[in-house]
Amino acid sequence: MPIATARPLEHPAREEIRLEAVLHALADPMRLQVVRFLATLGEGEAATCSAIDLAISKSTVTHHFRVLREAGVISQVYRGTAKMNALRRRDLDALFPGLLDTVLAADAAQRRRVR
Amino acid sequence: MPIATARPLEHPAREEIRLEAVLHALADPMRLQVVRFLATLGEGEAATCSAIDLAISKSTVTHHFRVLREAGVISQVYRGTAKMNALRRRDLDALFPGLLDTVLAADAAQRRRVR
């Protein structure tokens, strides 16, 4: 296995997560789509990046997932060569009660209205 | 009065306001500070840009207020040569129920924890 795949991915600890970074991470339609998908998974479940059909290049997908991870919105762990992604719902709900659900509801309302 | 001050300022109509733009506008500590201040005003009240002590250059202040206005978070109208700013709470609450209050609460929680 190449060394690169074994490199642990950096995550902010719960207390390092900042509202501004979370809002920035959510302020993008592609990243909102990722969060929307991950929010449908059960607790403890994770999905590969390719499980979400984003219709953009692989490097752009990687970028968006990294923004979400570095903001503390998702966790990413390697399983073999694939990254498994999960929403950090427990951390976000503890820090910013209701924020994630309110944003997801706002996103759903907008999609009903606009598309 | 110079013509520039009479130029009407462009605002998105309520139905043109997009969640991604609102989240982006809120994803900045200076802009959050502006929103926090404007949220303390009563309905129908407005404040000049200089009423909020941001400790940054005037051009940067202007930039931040413009981002907020173009996202639909605030309204800006000229009164003489001063811009009067107000939160578009009614529009935001109608489009994205609870979002503004949840973000303001998250911001308050973070400031209690971090500063």
UniProtKB/TrEMBL annotation, chains A, B:
Q: Which UniProt keywords apply?
A: DNA-binding, Transcription, Transcription regulation
The superkingdom of the source organism is Bacteria
**Residue intervals of the HTH arsR-type domain:** 11-107
Q: What is this protein called?
A: Helix-turn-helix transcriptional regulator
Source species of the chain: Actinomadura alba
